[in-house]
């Protein structure tokens, strides 16, 4: 009888003295979250609730002998997402555990099962930070960045898209909670929006839940629509929009890029500067190959689609675990019915964001 492949692949062939780890992918996103203290544990409740301030009390001008108006102001909106989970499992037959020992056991599989489960969960989990948790096929998966980055009408001349999504039970559309925005520009950044946003100024309620979605191939970026020609301008404008509309707390922590976008940025820097300057924070965290663009980390990420870049503010999000650790392990437990050792690792929780402080740069129209 053929023995389990898990034993065959990890035991004999004495000439092969180690197993190459081909699963390692370097990711910066989770490391930045951890460094900023934005990974929280021991959350409670059947769902994840949090409040977002969408408006401010109106300021009254003072007139001599005038009377002040006193009103109760509703300044908050409550967002809600459910708890999602991931589990990875393994088992080792008792007979196989006896076979996987001694001088021919080039890898002690029993001791490696749990570390391998955690490594697999960690590797898979990073990719989930970018998905749309509301997509039909993703009902049990994390609410990643794409969960609030849906877009409406965009034409080739628009430099930004119209935010159009629902996140946490609330619309990301501009002006959905009232408010107004300036209309001073001759050409609006998005014709369908028909205001100066994200340029100009207006009421905080107008864009309180609206991310900035940038059309990287707009005909209004310059003589060409090539990313290599316009990426410096696009990234500067996006950083300015996020910081201006979100305050000093709005400056992005990083732009996580697909390889196509990052390679184009490298080519741009190579033509403009004698030396490509790495970002000191990314370098100090052990991540080489970053680019410092106006004080913001730019880095390629394995899990980001090749033609996209995400402007991420780690201080405006939380990764929440309902357990006392991020990835909880259970086992090994001996199961007499199957005569095997059972192992499990998992995550239960979700990620929550303030979409106003995030951006997507994409080839849209």
Index terms:
six-stranded mixed β-sheet, five-stranded mixed β-sheet, alpha+beta, 365 residues
Structural class: alpha+beta
Instruction: Report how far the terminal alpha carbons are from each other.
Output: 59 Å
Query: What is the C-alpha radius of gyration, as a whole number of Å?
Result: 25 Å
Helix and strand succession? HHEEEEHHEEEHEHHEEEEEEE
**Unreliable stretches covering 5 or more consecutive residues:** 8-25
Number of helices: 7
The tally of strands reads: 15
* Percent in strands: 15-25%
Kindly state the percentage of residues in helix.
10-25%
Mean pLDDT: 89
How do the strands line up in the largest sheet? 7-15-11-8-10-9
Main sheet overview: 6 strands, mixed
Shape category: globular
